[in-house]
Amino acid sequence: MDRGDGVCRHFDDRQNRCEIYAIRPDICRIDRQYEINYRPLMSWEAFVELNLAACQSLQQSPKVDLHSGKEEADQVDRQT
Fold first, then answer.
1. CA distance 52 to 1
2. Is residue 39 one of the residues assigned to a domain?
3. Residue 54 counted as domain residue
4. Cα distance from N-terminal residue to C-terminal residue, the chain
5. What is the DSSP annotation of the chain?
6. Residue 38: which domain range?
7. Which residues have a Cβ under 8 Å from the Cβ of 3 and sit 6 or more positions away?
């Protein structure tokens, strides 16, 4: 569901929210993904902790313009 820049095509940048949240697919539902794929492997607490760490890492990573291959200025400025 990538719109081409690493962000879901259903994410509304202006309102900072998912446009299909109430009917989002299973891949977007953390609780459903846990039940389907991860429950036999780890506790819910460990799963949440891993997801939180991944989200924090992604938020700290510089964004790259997929067309130019260059980091976007607002992300680079925040890190300096």
1. 21
2. yes
3. yes
4. 32
5. -B-SSSSBTTEETTTTEETTGGG--GGG-HHHHIIIIITTTS-HHHHHHHHHHHHHHHHHSPPB-TTT-PBPHHHHHHH-
6. 26-75
7. 9, 11
Confidence category of residue 55, pLDDT binned at 50, 70, 90: confident
DSSP 8-state code for residue 26: G
In a domain, 46, yes or no: yes
Q: Read off the pLDDT of residues 65-79 as tens digits, 9 standing for 90 and up.
A: 656 656 655 544 444
- What stretch of H or E contains 39? none
Structural domain contains residue 36: yes
Quote the CA–CA distance of 21 and 9 in Å, as a whole number. 12
Place of tokens 């291959």: 69
Tally of structural domains, the chain? 1
